[in-house]
Each structure stands twice: as C-alpha cells, then as structure tokens.
Amino acid sequence: MGRAGKALKHVLTQYGISQNRLAVTMGVARSTVNQWVNEVSDPLADSVPEIIVALETLEPSAASIFLSMYLERGAEATIDR
Asked: Given this model, what pLDDT does residue 80 score?
C-alpha cells in the first residue's frame, strides 16, 4: 500500500480528526476511511483531491501536511513534528 494511508493516519492523529468526521465530511463510509488509514486499500486517484478538500474544511494545515507527505515533499520533517 502507498503513502496516502500513512499520510492520512499521521494528519488525523496529529490534528485529532476522527475517521468518522473525515468520512462524514467526504460523504463516504467510515469503513472506507478506515481501510485507507490501516493501509488495507489505497484511495482511488479521484479520492485524493476529495480528501484534501475535506481536510481543508476540517483543518487547513492538515490538508497541507497530507499533500506534502503524499507527494513526499518534506515528509521526514513533517513526521517528526
């Protein structure tokens, strides 16, 4: 599985955003978010922008960190925060 799950797990934990809250904001099942976070499955390519929009709604800085980690830009520094 890919970087999306790791990045998503990190930002949800760091910002105290529940999987359920993200799922409701995105309009998807909580089990879908859970599968991404636990790296059971990767989000489809069209879901990544939806994740970013939902995170921007909930916590703009979480969206920025998710995107950086997903694109592997400065991920090492971000993880250590």
From this structure: 47
CA distance 42 to 26: 16
| Burial class of residue 71 (count of CB atoms within 10 Å of its CB; 0-12, 13-18, 19+) | exposed
DSSP 42: P
Is the separation of the CB atoms in 69 and 25 below 8 Å? no
Global confidence as pTM:
0.84
Token pair recorded at residue 12: 């949800």
- Which tokens sit at 11? 């930002």
User: How much is the CA Rg of the chain, to the nearest whole Å?
Assistant: 11
Q: Which two tokens stand for residue 15?
A: 């910002």
Res. 43: pLDDT tops 70? yes
Task: Centre a 10 Å sphere on the Cβ of residue 58 and count the other Cβ atoms it contains.
Answer: 19
49-59 pLDDT, tens digit per residue, is: 999 999 999 99
